[in-house]
Write the structure tokens for this entry.
Amino acid sequence: MKSGARALGVAESFSDDDRSVLCGAVCRPDRVTDGFVFGSCTVGGTDATAAVADLWTTLDREDVRVLLVAGIAPAWFNLVDLSTLHDRVDRPVIAVSFEASPGLEPALRDAFSGDALDRRLRTYRDLPPRRRLDVNDETVYVRAVGVDDDAAAETVRAFTPTGGRPEPLRVARLAARAARRFRADEET
């Protein structure tokens, strides 16, 4: 991966309110960060895919070559449809999660029923398989659309100079948390 290549990493931060703060951070593999974009999605909703796509559109950066998403279920099971997102952004989309898991289906069944459950199960079952990836001395789990498994692994490793969290996702997570705290302070 070229040192000047850029990725948009999207992470979220939510508390007890009904909206989760999303942040997109544009980073290069050498840790240079040169852009941010903010948005939100509904906690427990079904608008995360559209919200992430809106971040991409708002950012309007042709130089960003890949979209990294922190997990597939931000904002309390507001599932991201990676294929739809790939179609909207016309770039490879790689979801990275950081914990081993037996899968979300049992948790979805506990939290939802009826149409809400059926919709989430369809989205979840249509996702590509999650693959374990060793990065530095850490293990992450990757799902990718628009890029093969080897290229996805190369991308995640290129954007992870230390630890196990790719830099665009690490920076986006920090900024989303700061924005959520700022928003909470403004509302009080």
